[in-house]
Amino acid sequence: MDFKLDKYEEELLSGCLDNKPEMQKALYDRYKDAMYTICYRMMNDDDEAHDVLQDGFIEVFKSLSKFKKQSTLGAWIKTIVVRAALAKIKKQRETVVLHHEQHDQPIIWDENLTGEYLEKGIKELPTGYRAVFTLIEVEGYSHKEVANMLDISEGTSKSQLYHSKKMLQGKLKELMY
Amino acid sequence: MEQNKHILRQAIQHLPEYMPKESSWEFISGKIQNKMSSELSDMEQRKPRKDVWEKLSNRLRHETWEEENYDALRIAIRELPNYQAPEVWTEMQQRLHPRKIGLQLENKRWFVGIAASILLIVGLFWIVNPIKTNVEGYTVQYDVEKVEVKPNVLLSEEAEEADLLDYIQYQCASVQLQCEKPYFKDLMQQYQDLTQAEEELKKEISKMPNDQLLKYQIRIRKERVEISKELFQYLAG
């Protein structure tokens, strides 16, 4: 399915493909905050989020000719930026820790959970768990997509999400009470 | 030649009916079962590999772990803060156009130098020969009118649901990353479910008008409108 871009985005896209700096800046301005929020949440560090944002957008501009309009432009940019973040995490050798325990305990979310506490809880998660939780629960990626990005199986992605939630639940208890 | 055939027909209509013995079916079904079981016993039996159940149960466990108060998590996710990107454009531009930037800066210095010289010459000329003008008495006034579009105004009429949906679809088709978020997707799913439910109710009502069904339809429509407003508010931020 092809997504129809609005007139302005078409203009931006064509300007960026012609390598026009003002159009590149306009595209960057349009998405920078949303992308930075994802980078910051995944990296949990201002400087690293800053680097990932740069690397991600450089890759966006280099790859724009490959954008086939099979998603919205924003979703396409987001995927590239997320991949840049994951590449950085892998470089740091903070790979996703795999657990093979049984999922036999229920996860119970506290009625008083707020965005503020959740943000603090996410920040305390190890990098791999933070990435999986952010990508699936906050950004809405499917297990299949995450498995593809992290080069793991869907089952592992599900398992990682479970463990990240269990850990998050523990962290939230400490933070809230 | 046959006479009084109607009498025969009437008599035929009154012929008695006979019931089979109760044991008949037992006999037939016993025969069938025997045949089937003998055929089944002749068939080759295959057993699944031992690890199938293990894999299956693992998958089930992954897919169905218990989670209570999931809504509390969804609400908290919605409240997560957004961050402003730091100023990294200059560095990025240098990476994207390294030579051009150098040239541009060099050209800029020349341009600034030339412009400063011209201003100096013109300034000196004015000091020596002041220009006489007849434009005294004119004043310039500026009126600034700030126009604000309040989303609530748009939301006041139920009839505007279609406009809201157009707006939502337009936003999602172009730029809105919010549309990819699970919260938005959940709401959209609810909206679609309600739309489908209303369609089904409409069909029922057209077949058999009924006050109770009409009441349901009104309730569903109200909920739908509420959800479309919520979708709009979510996108409008």
Oligomer: heterodimer
Shape of chain A: elongated
Helix amount of chain B: 55-70%
The tally of strands of chain A reads: 1
Radius of gyration of chain B: 42 Å
Biggest sheet statistics of chain B? none
Which class of the largest domain in chain A in CATH terms? Mainly Alpha
Radius of gyration of chain A: 18 Å
Strand content bin of chain B: under 5%
Poorly predicted sequence stretches spanning 5 or more consecutive residues of chain B: 145-157
Proportion of residues in extended strands of chain A: under 5%
Let me know the CATH homologous superfamily of the largest domain in chain A. Answer: RNA polymerase sigma factor, region 2, helix turn helix motif
Write down the secondary-structure element order of chain B: HHHEHHHHHHH
Average predicted local confidence, pLDDT of chain B:
68
Largest interface: A-B, 59 and 47 residues
Number of domains of chain A: 2
Percent in helix of chain A: 55-70%
Number of helices of chain A: 8
Layout of helices and strands, plus pairs?
The complex is a heterodimer of chains A (177) and B (237).
Chain A: H1 7-17, H2 21-43, H3 46-63, H4 73-91, E1 107-108, H5 115-123, H6 127-138, H7 143-150, H8 154-176
Chain B: H1 5-13, H2 22-42, H3 51-63, E1 67-68, H4 70-78, H5 89-96, H6 98-128, H7 151-154, H8 161-174, H9 182-207, H10 211-236
Helix pairs in contact in B: 5-6, 8-10, 9-10
